[in-house]
Design goal:
The protein is an alpha+beta fold. It has helices at 2-7, 9-32, 45-58, 103-116, 141-145, 158-166, 174-178, 198-212, 216-225, 284-296, 302-309, 370-383, and strands at residues 63-70, 76-83, 97-98, 234-235, 248-252, 255-259, 262-265, 280-282, 326-328, 331-338, 341-348, 353-359.
């Protein structure tokens, strides 16, 4: 035995050294894998806040609210407010605001959730739910969600625009809006092309309300907002909450409905004339949570999730013509702006990071979307680290 130990000492010693090294490596990995400092430097709360703050100062928005979530659990990572809600009031972190065009992403998510629950199917004809709608027999729910119907946008009707101008605080009901739908020829065969029209959102919202035998507000709440824990999100069809963030826009002096040279605050305007495509209200925290859960949870089936983020789209068309979201720079995004507010939401799969921005201006004098400008700079800065 003594001779065996002497002859094999070097091998025994080498084995002990290797074992010690392996234990050390395992301990280092186990003790450091969850450390915040293992994150890329730009993704710390302080760095993100500084970045958004600097970008907000360079934008023409009167105020910006930023919220982000990091990791598999949808916990608040950082939330920062910049700018002014109006001349005297700082924009509150929890302010609710119209999601503008990005409301369509919520509407499409409701459709996909009801499809997963077998309440509706994507290829149901619109005539099954809203038979009185123009061309209802040749249009499907999928067409409405995809902005692929060829229907004329009722918001472009001058007679309707005059009605809005005469009563800017009026709360429009869906049945009132349906009477304004123009019965004109389709501009293309449904499914053969894509063109944004608020008419699509109005009819999709009405179809889903009738399919669930609820108001659209109640259907969104029961099937979407409550299950996802979106406590500050609502379909705006009633009295507004006290913490609404009304936006600013450049408008014509006597015609705030259209862009123009005069900078005005839209505190005395409602935008429910735009229907479900623009009238969902939420806080930045809720919008960030919505994005995070859509990307990381099993709320939607895998098939529906692929449709939502546009993975099966034939081309990168953007949120307006896809099923709610699109791919850009490797991250899923929602973008939108309408009548005083602009919004940008992003999800970065490499870092499991979601964030959203509200800018209290829908477009600068040059026509640029302030929230999108800031959001794209955030994405470019993060992806530029690689």
């Amino acid at each position: 035995m003594k001779h065996f130990v002497i002859r094999h000492t070097k091998f025994i010693f080498l084995g002990i050294v290797v074992s010690i090294l392996l234990v050390g490596v395992w301990f280092k990995i186990a003790s450091s894998s969850d450390k915040p400092q293992s994150l890329p430097p730009l993704l710390t709360a302080e760095a993100l806040s500084e970045l958004v703050g600097a970008l907000a100062e360079d934008s023409s928005a009167t105020g910006v609210v930023f919220s982000s979530l990091l990791g598999s659990q949808a916990n608040v990572y950082t939330q920062v407010a910049f700018g002014q809600l109006n001349e005297h009031t700082k924009m509150p972190l929890g302010a609710q605001f119209y999601l503008a065009d990005a409301s369509h992403a919520m509407l499409v998510t409701l459709l996909l959730r009801l499809h997963d629950l077998q309440v509706v199917t994507l290829d149901d004809a619109l005539a099954q739910y809203v038979p009185e709608a123009p061309h209802a027999s040749v249009i499907t729910l999928r067409n409405l969600a995809n902005q692929a119907t060829g229907l004329t946008d009722y918001l472009r009707e001058q007679a309707f625009q005059r009605q809005v101008e005469q009563a800017p605080t009026r709360l429009w009901r869906s049945d009132e809006l349906l009477t304004w739908l123009p019965n004109q020829p389709l501009s293309f065969i449904p499914g053969n092309d894509y063109r944004y029209s608020a008419t699509n959102g109005l009819l999709l919202g009405e179809a889903l309300a009738r399919a669930t035998n609820m108001s659209l507000s109640d259907a969104l709440k029961e099937y979407l907002f409550v299950p996802l824990g979106l406590e500050d999100t609502r379909y705006s069809d009633s009295v507004l909450p006290n913490n609404v963030s009304f936006g600013y826009r450049y408008a014509h002096p006597q015609f705030a409905f259209k862009p123009g040279p005069t900078f005005i605050h839209l505190q005395n305007w409602r935008i429910e004339w735009s229907g479900p495509s623009k009238s969902v209200m939420a806080s930045t925290h809720d919008v960030t949570r919505f994005m995070h859960l859509m990307m990381t949870s099993s709320f939607l089936s895998q098939e529906s999730k692929r449709l939502l983020i546009g993975l099966d789209a034939s081309e990168n068309r953007g949120w307006q013509t896809g099923l709610g979201k699109s791919q850009h720079l490797g991250g899923t995004v929602i973008r939108g702006n309408a009548h005083g507010v602009s919004i940008f939401v992003g999800y970065l799969p490499e870092y499991d990071l979601s964030f959203s921005l509200l800018a209290n201006l829908d477009a600068s004098r040059s026509g640029a979307n302030p929230a999108e400008l800031i959001g794209m700079r955030v994405l470019e800065s993060i992806y530029g680290m690689r």
